[in-house]
Design brief:
Blueprint lengths: L29 H12 L2 E6 L2 E6 L2 H9 L12 H6 L13 H14 L8 H17 L4 H18 L9 H15 L7 H4 L14 H29 L7 H10 L9 H9 L2 H20 L1 H15 L14 H13 L9 E2 L4 E3 L2 E3 L4 E4 L1 H4 L44 H18 E4 L29 E4 L2 H9 L5
Parallel strand pairs: 2-6
Antiparallel strand pairs: 1-2, 3-6, 4-5, 7-8
Helix pairs in contact: 4-11, 5-6, 5-16, 6-12, 7-9, 9-11, 10-11, 12-13, 12-14, 12-16
Bound molecules: protoporphyrin IX containing FE.
The site of protoporphyrin IX containing FE has 27 residues, from helix 4, helix 12 and helix 16.
């Protein structure tokens, strides 16, 4: 295909008339299909669905050259009629189109979550991690629930000063329900109304408008996600019982008119509620870590040896130990690489048509970064399917490694603003777990150890398939340290 400007489109598989490539796209594990297409057509693959163009970037080079270096053109989000406009997720930074409101929200996130600002959250992350370790000691078999509570409580404390003590917490339940129903509605950008936008004007009572009734249910939950925590915080601030938080800092500045940068409470709701996606991702990473430690006891033992030598047995690890624990960092990087938390990132959109490597990328093209494939690029990672933290120890020309953190958080002007904060939290949880617990395979009826089979769910975020394991305290001394760890700020 040659476009009107005389440049061909990037290569891609043959399309069917009108519907384009819709039948090539599987509903599950799309990143694997995209990687196969990449082997055949190169690291930029062009496709279209009902005439709407999309490209898949299979290499870190093309993602960097387009989404970072040409960020002014590639930082928009695709127009998702069902998700953004009907369910109203477009109140959140994550789905905002590129423009003034986006820049305003990013600036606010950046002020509080940049690489130095996140240091102020460290005492809270330590406290929440201690609480988590105590829960692990009491009921290690419920590790998934404890990880969930750790993430929910840390994020809610940081953002709204609200401590989550149970899974039935009103805000967390509302947010999880909204996300669950949204995910069940199908992949963003693949619903009929996304391609035939006038369908959104169908009255809800009409046959064929079931999607709209369903979407309205989600819209109410999304509204609650925005309103409940900020309204509760305002009550606490009025009664002088609020803890300092991201949202309270924004509300204070707004009320005292210290800034003209944001003009409406709705902005505060939109920017703070963006944190929820982060909880789910940190959960995916820590669950993958537990699975990796069960499957690779040699990696866990090596990290534990390093921790014992540096931290000793009289205290729990802390942030200031990090620079002396290089192997723990390797385990963290390998965990992030091995199970990429967001395999296809969040799609960007080209605002204007562009020429790249002699090919035309039309205006409006949806740009998908296949981060899963980038984390398996043999140019950087030998035997990419193997879990091998050592690959990050010796970056020589044969095994030149790329830090997964340069890809798994996305690219350019839309790169994850929570990346420094989650880097700290994930590291602390991993190092404390390694210092105090052993991770063992479950035992079958004949008393034999059975290694769990590693597998990851398909979906927008990649979580390990449910698995069983035994988690036991490393020693009575370790258990005592956990019991004595301070948890009240
Ligand atoms: C392991 C943890 C995390 C991973 C892997 C992750 C990954 C990502 C990715 C891939 C994107 C899309 C970037 C792009 O469009 O190129 C993103 C966006 C975003 N993340 Fe994260 N994230 C994590 C944790 C967090 C946390 C803890 C927060 C909140 C403090 C957060 C807040 C956001 C927001 C608000 C956006 C939307 C940014 C925008 O559209 O401009 N994330 N994240």
């Amino acid at each position: 295909w040659t476009t009107s400007n005389g440049h061909p489109l990037p290569p891609g598989p043959p399309a069917e008339p009108f519907i384009g490539h819709i039948r090539i796209l599987p509903s599950q594990y799309q990143w694997k299909t995209f990687a196969e297409l990449g082997r055949k057509y190169g690291d930029i693959v062009y496709m279209h669905i009902f005439g709407r163009p999309m490209i898949v970037l299979n290499s870190i080079l093309s993602a960097t050259e387009l989404m970072v270096e040409r960020g002014a053109n590639y930082s928009d989000r695709p127009r998702l009629v069902l998700l953004s406009e009907i369910m109203s997720w477009d109140s959140f930074l994550t789905f905002l189109p590129y423009g003034d409101r986006f820049r305003k929200y990013r600036r606010l996130m950046q002020q509080h979550f940049n690489s130095t600002a996140v240091n102020k959250f460290k005492p809270l992350q330590i406290e929440e991690t201690h609480r988590f370790l105590k829960n692990m000691l009491d009921s290690p078999e419920q590790f998934e629930r404890h990880i969930h509570l750790l993430n929910a409580s840390t994020m809610m404390m940081v953002t709204y000063g609200h401590r989550v003590t149970t899974e039935s917490d009103e805000y967390v339940r509302t947010a999880e329900r909204a996300i669950e129903l949204t995910v069940e509605a199908g992949s963003p950008g693949t619903h009929l109304v996304d391609f035939v936008p006038w369908l959104r004007f169908l009255p809800t009572w009409m046959p064929g408008a079931a999607f709209k009734r369903y979407a309205f249910k989600i819209r109410r939950l999304v509204r609650d996600m925005l309103d409940i925590p900020v309204n509760r915080l305002k009550e606490d601030m009025a009664s002088k019982t609020a803890r300092p938080s991201f949202a309270s800092a924004l509300l204070n500045a707004y009320e005292q008119q210290q800034t003209v940068d944001y003009s409406h409470e709705e902005d505060i709701k939109g920017v703070t509620a963006g944190i929820f996606g982060g909880m789910n991702l940190t959960q995916a990473v820590l669950m993958s870590f537990v699975l990796a430690m069960v499957l690779h006891p040699e990696a866990a033992a090596k990290a534990q040896k390093e921790i014992d030598a540096i931290v000793g047995h009289d205290r729990l690890p802390d942030f200031h130990d990090r620079e002396y624990l290089p192997f723990v960092d390797c385990v963290m990087k390998e965990t992030l690489r091995w199970n990429t938390p967001v395999p296809l990132g969040i799609p960007h959109r080209a605002m204007n048509s562009d020429i790249y490597r002699g090919k035309c990328i039309p205006a409006g093209t949806m740009v998908i970064a296949n981060i899963w494939k980038m984390m398996r690029d043999e140019q950087f990672y030998l035997e990419p399917e193997r879990f091998q933290p050592e690959r990050f120890q010796c970056a020589d020309s044969r095994n030149a490694t790329l830090d997964p953190k340069s890809a798994i958080f996305g690219f350019g002007r839309r790169v994850c603003p929570g990346r420094f904060f989650s880097d700290n939290g994930i590291w602390l949880a991993m190092v404390c777990l390694l210092a105090t617990f052993d991770f063992l395979p479950p035992i079958d009826d004949d008393g034999r150890e059975v290694m769990p089979k590693p597998g990851f769910q398909s979906g927008f975020t990649s979580h390990p398939m449910p698995f069983k394991c035994r988690i036991s305290r490393r020693s009575e001394r370790a258990a005592l340290l956990v019991r004595q760890a301070p948890t009240e700020q």
